[in-house]
From TrEMBL:
<dbReference type="Pfam" id="PF00005">
    <property type="entry name" value="ABC_tran"/>
</dbReference>
<keyword id="KW-0201">Cytochrome c-type biogenesis</keyword>
<dbReference type="GO" id="GO:0005524">
    <property type="term" value="F:ATP binding"/>
</dbReference>
<keyword id="KW-1278">Translocase</keyword>
<dbReference type="InterPro" id="IPR005895">
    <property type="entry name" value="ABC_transptr_haem_export_CcmA"/>
</dbReference>
<dbReference type="InterPro" id="IPR003439">
    <property type="entry name" value="ABC_transporter-like_ATP-bd"/>
</dbReference>
<keyword id="KW-0813">Transport</keyword>
<dbReference type="InterPro" id="IPR017871">
    <property type="entry name" value="ABC_transporter-like_CS"/>
</dbReference>
<keyword id="KW-0547">Nucleotide-binding</keyword>
<keyword id="KW-0472">Membrane</keyword>
<feature type="domain" description="ABC transporter">
    <location>
        <begin position="3"/>
        <end position="213"/>
    </location>
</feature>
<keyword id="KW-0067">ATP-binding</keyword>
<comment type="similarity">
    <text>Belongs to the ABC transporter superfamily.</text>
</comment>
<protein>
    <submittedName>
        <fullName>Heme ABC exporter ATP-binding protein CcmA</fullName>
    </submittedName>
</protein>
<dbReference type="InterPro" id="IPR027417">
    <property type="entry name" value="P-loop_NTPase"/>
</dbReference>
<dbReference type="InterPro" id="IPR003593">
    <property type="entry name" value="AAA+_ATPase"/>
</dbReference>
Length: 214
């Protein structure tokens, strides 16, 4: 399995945010995006997840089962800054929705709702409305979404924001387990995630610079 980005550039409004970004990630590999606020980390993650069109370049997914040069987005889970859960629905209902909506990608199977909640340390509160949970508990449950449906690629934007030390290590262990299972991880973070063998992509950004100037 391989995730390939070739010569990506992206625009937000009139500004080109980055250009010429290429990378190749294989089974068990991770790439951590670093850089100051506004340098384009979230923009790049959204391009890879298929939520934004790149200005140039493409992101493709290769595996024995995939058609050649398949769009990578279908192989990706995306955990953005927001948790993508309905406050008035219970945790169980939210996770059930995502499990059914996403389904499993080839080559793996998601775990049950209760197993996913247990894995993030919150097995006993799935009956509560999502909106009742603390900020850190909400983030943990958003992470549980990654576990209920199988996707080989995890795209994580500041996954450990609002988390206590225990949750950080829970997330790190879940990410390591995903990599050990042959998954791929692409993460933007200001805090080290504790992934020993991660590659780093420092983002410098072209924020505020018009295309004609560079
Ligand atoms: N819709 C938009 N229109 C114009 N500019 C935008 C738009 N969305 C984002 N930007 C700009 O794009 C740049 C990159 O933003 P992005 O969110 O990718 O940065 P980031 O590196 O993830 O930052 P942070 O570390 O603060 O999360 C920023 O300067 C931002 O103001």
């Amino acid at each position: 399995m391989r995730l390939t980005a070739e010569n990506l550039s992206a625009r937000r409004g009139q500004d080109l945010i980055f250009k010429g970004i290429s990378f190749n990630l294989g089974t068990g590999e991770s790439l951590v995006l670093t850089g100051r606020n506004g340098s384009g980390k979230s923009t790049l993650l959204r391009v890879v997840a298929g939520l934004l069109h790149p200005e140039t370049g493409r992101v493709t997914w290769h595996s024995d089962a995939a058609e050649s040069g398949m769009r990578a987005a279908e192989a990706c889970h995306y955990l953005g800054h927001r948790n993508a859960m309905k406050a008035e629905l219970s945790v169980f209902e939210n996770l059930s929705f995502w499990k059914e909506f996403l389904g499993d990608f080839e080559g793996g199977q998601g775990v049950s709702i209760s197993e996913a909640a247990e894995a993030v340390g919150l097995g006993d509160i799935t009956h509560l409305p999502f909106g009742y949970l603390s900020a850190g508990q909400q983030r943990r449950m958003a992470f549980a979404k990654l576990l209920v449906a199988h996707r080989p690629v995890w795209i994580l934007d500041e996954p450990t924001a609002a988390l206590d030390v225990n949750a950080e290590s829970v997330f790190t262990n879940l990410i390591k387990a995903h990599l050990a299972d042959g998954g791929i991880v692409l993460a933007a973070t200001h805090q080290p995630l504790g992934l020993e063998n991660a590659k780093e992509l420092p983002m410098t950004g072209f924020t505020g610079v018009m295309e004609g100037m560079w």
